């Protein structure tokens, strides 16, 4: 049979197109003509609709054959929706309750129908507003440990892991975005780059910094070659939705097999950027309490990640690596603990590097963060961004000799 032609949904056509699905009638209401549809996508790439009716509401997310932010001149394949769907169902399995439930997937139309998170808001917006979120550090640290451990050769059967490696290896175009926009473009005068004019001098310095360029390429080398687990791939504070008591991770369309340290580093980097942006959001009062909260969250994410990863190492190490037959089963529990320390040590070092270059690409590259962009005074914005750029340079270049988060909190305070 011919492949079914792709047609982009509109609020007007959506009820007719999806109204025949029982799973949606049950969740929204049995009469599709009574569904109310709003397009709410604020992302860069896709269409997102809220569909509401008498029985409830769902989210309908549809990929377009191009980058929404730029238009048809930048084509991007529909299959990213297939990777998002496959990542969501795996994450739901590996850390239950942390991603929206999927109700329906249509591969030809690149549609994922999922749970409407309500009254959740995007974490980045909450941090800009200065909201304290008591559960976020533990939730995100556990999510990282569980998804990264359970998607790897430490846990999966060799066949299942290799089949997933092959499945996600086709996500070439979204990896290509990261490979260029994150690891290379910030370090030369690439066409899509922009930065706050006040940063001209510092930007020239960073682009002439040979040690930094070598580190950025070493990290890119890890990104493309170290296929150790299924990553979210875009785990910044705009891909996390929150209430005071609940945390959910959305938007895993960049999922692929890559280095464990990437998701953790990108996440911590976005909390550090929030820290450096706080000075730009003090019109209605000091953000000192917020700064302490953010430093605490960074500690808590890392400590929870280490604790949960270690727990899984001791209780769920069922894959082909560091087998129990070599260690515990021979009475050498210490050997397994030493191997764990070494694995965590490597993740720590690489995590710092990914965190550093994520800061650079968000300030020098194409995709900027609302944390800084919402600071209207360009002198103030530039000062916040300069501190983050210097901090990021330190993380990337000195990552092998940084021993803990306490020293980094001190450095952040001095630069801020
Ligand atoms: P993109 O891939 O285009 O970035 P996202 O998945 O990030 O799309 O979604 C864009 C926006 O739509 C989010 O920032 C959020 O505001 C909203 N959104 C997405 N998924 C949900 C959901 N499950 N529940 C509620 N809002 C959502
Ligand atoms: Mg998004
Ligand atoms: Mg978004
Ligand atoms: Mg996305």
UniProtKB/TrEMBL annotation:
EC numbers for this chain: 2.7.1.100
UniProt keyword Kinase, yes or no: yes
Domain of life: Bacteria
EC class of the enzyme, as a word: transferase
Aminoglycoside phosphotransferase domain: residues covered: 37-274
Molecular function terms from GO: S-methyl-5-thioribose kinase activity
Keywords: ATP-binding, Kinase, Nucleotide-binding, Transferase
Cited InterPro entries: Aminoglycoside_PTrfase, Kinase-like_dom_sf, Methylthioribose_kinase
PANTHER family, per the entry: METHYLTHIORIBOSE KINASE
Family: Belongs to the methylthioribose kinase family.
Subunit structure: Homodimer.
Protein name: S-methyl-5-thioribose kinase
